[in-house]
Amino acid sequence: MGLEDKITNLFKKIPKVKQGQKVVLGIDGLSRSGKTTIVRNIEQHIQEKNILTCVLHIDDYIVERERRYNTSNEEWDEYYNLQWDVEWLKENLFKKLKESNELKLLTYNNSSDSSKLQTVKIPDTCLIIIEGVFLQRKEWRNYFDFMIFLYCGREERFNRESVETQNNIEKFENRYWKAEDYYMETVLPIEKADLVIQN
Question: Which of 9, 27, 147, 194 is the most buried (most CB within 10 A)?
Answer without folding.
Answer: 27
